[in-house]
Design brief:
Length: 206
């Protein structure tokens, strides 16, 4: 029997979820928590956690690392109406096993459990579509850079100064500046931190 914990501040939603879980064969939810802090102060070690994002005391995103530190073998499924791309990507980076749009959790729950049983993860189709669109568009943008611009980008990400970049590539500092202006313009960014974010998401610098 797989043990499931629910962390959800809306009591009505939590009770519906608990009933849905207990209606699944081989799954059992004994209780729910209205915030992550209560779960973290408990001795429960569930196989699966259904985790909301927007909650009092601690957000679901903040809680992911703490939960996995306490119970590293737990599969965390985000169950939230918060579906902006930044939140989804942040949750994925932290090691969740799935992301459900709260508006469709009643339909998706059995599919989530089946996916986990088969060693996979699960995302509501609308969530998955945003992920695929993001990586597809990002790669197209990066493909617009020339080989030399990718080379310059790599040296920037390696922390080299303009002078060191110029020395390493046997070009002038003015040429380095011109390349960097072109890179920022093509990628529609304005800073080194944005360049880091774009490259670190999924693409290796050539």
């Amino acid at each position: 029997m797989k043990r499931v914990s629910i962390i959800e501040d809306n009591i009505i939603t939590a009770e519906i979820l608990m009933q849905l879980v207990n209606n699944q064969s081989d799954y059992f939810c004994e209780k729910y928590y209205t915030n992550p802090a209560d779960f973290l102060n408990n001795e429960e070690r569930p196989d699966i956690i259904l985790l909301d994002i927007m909650m009092p005391q601690m957000s679901g995103i903040e809680a992911i690392d703490k939960i996995l530190s306490k119970t590293p073998n737990t599969s965390i499924i985000i169950n939230s109406s918060k579906d902006d791309l930044e939140t989804i990507l942040e949750a994925m980076k932290k090691g969740i096993a799935g992301y459900i749009d709260k508006n469709s959790f009643t339909e998706d729950l059995s599919d989530v459990f089946k996916s986990l049983e088969n060693g996979g993860g699960f995302m509501t189709p609308s969530i998955a579509k945003k992920i695929f669109a993001f990586f597809g568009n990002k790669n197209k943008v990066l493909d617009a850079l020339s080989e030399r611009e990718h080379e310059i980008a790599k040296t920037i990400l390696d922390g080299l100064s303009y002078k060191l970049i110029a020395d390493e590539l046997y070009i002038s500092i003015d040429t380095v500046r011109a390349h960097i202006r072109n890179i920022y313009k093509k990628l529609n960014i304005n800073s080194k931190s944005e360049l880091f974010k774009m490259y670190n998401s999924n693409t290796t610098v050539h």
